Amino acid sequence: MRAKKSFGQHFLNSESIARRIAQSLKQIGQSYHHIVEVGPGKGMLTRFLTESEAQLWLVEADTDMVVYLNEHYPDLRKRIIEADFLKIDLRQVLQDQAFALIGNYPYNISSQILIKMVENRAFIPEMVGMFQKEVAERVVSPPGTKDYGVISVLVQAYYRGEYLFSVDKSKFNPPPKVQSGVIRLTRLENQHLDCDEKLFKKVVKQAFSQRRKMLRNTMKVYLKEDPVLAEPFFEQRPERLSVGDFVNLTKLVEKANSAEEG
User: Fold this and answer.
1) In angstroms, rounded to a whole number, what is the distance separating the alpha carbons of residues 234 and 44?
2) Of 86, 5, 9, 12, residue with least CA distance to 49
3) Half-sphere exposure of 9 (CA within 13 A, CB side)
4) By C-alpha distance, which of 204, 217, 214 is closest to 249?
5) Per-residue tens of pLDDT for the chain, all 262 residues
């Protein structure tokens, strides 16, 4: 069973790391009774997740790996889903029940997985996952740091992030070219923002589209020559803004749009 580049596969070969990842889920039996593992491959992490009291579901896009999993985990056959995680309807699979998301995620789609998690946050109280270390650090980085960016804001708007530990590339077969990091995300109590959430996403992306420029320049596309652009707030660069600041910025854009329409 060789790893396939097309699926971004790098198989974890360390039982101790796999056990540690599985044990990083903290809310089993409290916030949820189901776990969804993304890209289980040959089941190194799966082995330790089966020890949990939660019902385990596997989502694997590689047909060869699905055959392998069916052979080695016969008790899970009815809960092994052969599909692209990004394309499945999670609500339909779990019938609107809460679940934890976990996995040694394919690095080529890791940001997309995070976005899908955010979009389905009503059903995902907790996520634990291994990412390329640079991505893992970016997701949990606070405002004012060089790693803070679009994905940081979009995830932290709804989840509290923790960087748990790093994983050396020697722990994989084949070894990736980069180091890896494991993070845990715990959903915040408030799942909704006090603004237009679709617009919030657009505003965040626009603000970071030229991250070295002040908001006064990047936000002209939304606020045009609005006098508010002269305020000191707009002298900041996007990495200085908290989630709350971006919510307030989105409200300003909403107000400007309403005035324009009126």
Assistant:
1) 49
2) 12
3) 21
4) 204
5) 565 554 555 778 999 999 999 999 999 999 999 999 999 988 999 999 999 999 999 999 999 999 999 999 999 999 999 999 999 998 888 989 999 999 999 888 999 999 999 999 999 999 999 999 999 999 999 999 999 999 999 999 999 999 999 999 999 877 888 899 999 999 999 999 999 999 999 999 999 999 999 999 999 999 988 899 999 999 999 999 999 999 999 999 999 887 666 5
